[in-house]
Amino acid sequence: MATLEIRDLHVSVETPDAGPKQILRGVDLTVRAGETHAIMGPNGSGKSTLAYSIAGHPRYTVTGGTVTLDGEDVLAMSVDERARAGLFLAMQYPVEVPGVTVSNFLRTAKTAVSGEAPSLRHWTKDVKAAMDALRMDPAFAERNVNEGFSGGEKKRHEILQMELLKPKVAVLDETDSGLDVDALRIVSEGVNRVRETGETGLLLITHYTRILRYVKPDFVHVFVAGRVAEEGGPELADDLEENGYDRFLDSSAPVT
Ligand code: ADP
Ligand code: MG
Ligand code: MG
Q1: Residue limits of the ABC transporter domain (predicted)?
Q2: Which of 38, 50, 91, 108 is least surrounded by CB atoms within 10 angstroms?
């Protein structure tokens, strides 16, 4: 059973004018295959920084702590090695890949992650089934990655990748932002399909509780000022939906 373990993670980011700035201040989190975790928290609390750190983004420097996947040191891996190890990161601001079609991108990613090219017959069938399930037009496969994609298309493309790559652990950063109700439902159904395989651990990062109406988390972690301030079950998300983050922000205000 795959396990991602984050222990006492400290991360700083290089800022243009003020030098390094400490963002994560001791994050502890364990995500096992088959579990769905929601990370919630106010803007600027470091949620995306956690995602980028797991992904290995060069601008973020780990200043302490560990991240392991099945005991292997993730922080020592290159970005490619992390993907091959079974980590999947859907970023809040996906990049364009000029001149590479969705179809080629997916096949290249699948080949890189699994170590061999998928058999063309099965692969074509799998891609078609996954695109149908996400109500994506077949023509989408021939477009260049993220070039002129609408917000909803970007998110569907992320979920399409996740469904085809079958990662051990997937981190989805604000997959629900900017989606209308129909797109949110379609994307959530895709997340639930991955969840129901029981083979992927899901880390859903979200400011709002919208997606959590469709994807029920097993665990909710509230992020404040770069660490987990409170943990609970789905009822914690309901509480945040009703009462917002005020009580966390007040308690984290500097004592004067
Ligand atoms: P969240 O995703 O919870 O909104 P972020 O991880 O994006 O939070 O940001 C946490 C803090 O780190 C914020 O104060 C933000 O301004 C700062 N930060 C994040 N990335 C950078 C960066 N590349 N340069 C400067 N500051 C950054
Ligand atoms: Mg933000
Ligand atoms: Mg963010």
Answers
A1: 4-250
A2: 108
Q: Which residues line ligand 1 (CB under 6 A)?
A: 13, 15, 21, 23, 41, 43-49, 59
Interface predicted TM-score (ipTM) of this complex, two decimals: 0.91
Give the whole-angstrom CA distance, residue 158 versus residue 146: 10
What three-state secondary structure class fits 12? strand
120-133 and 151-165 helices, crossing angle to 10°: 140
Burial label for 82, CB within 10 Å (0-12, 13-18, 19+), is buried
Ligand 2 centre to CA of 127 (Å) is 32
Q: Which fold has domain 3-99+168-252?
A: Rossmann fold (3.40.50)
The tens digit of pLDDT for each residue in 26-39 reads 999 999 999 999 99
Measured in Å, residue 128 CA sits from the centre of ligand 2 at 34
Q: How many CB atoms lie within 10 A of CB 224?
A: 18
The pLDDT tens digits of the residues spanning 97-140 come to: 778 899 998 998 899 888 899 998 999 999 999 999 999 999 99
CA atoms within 13 A on the CB side of 65: 22
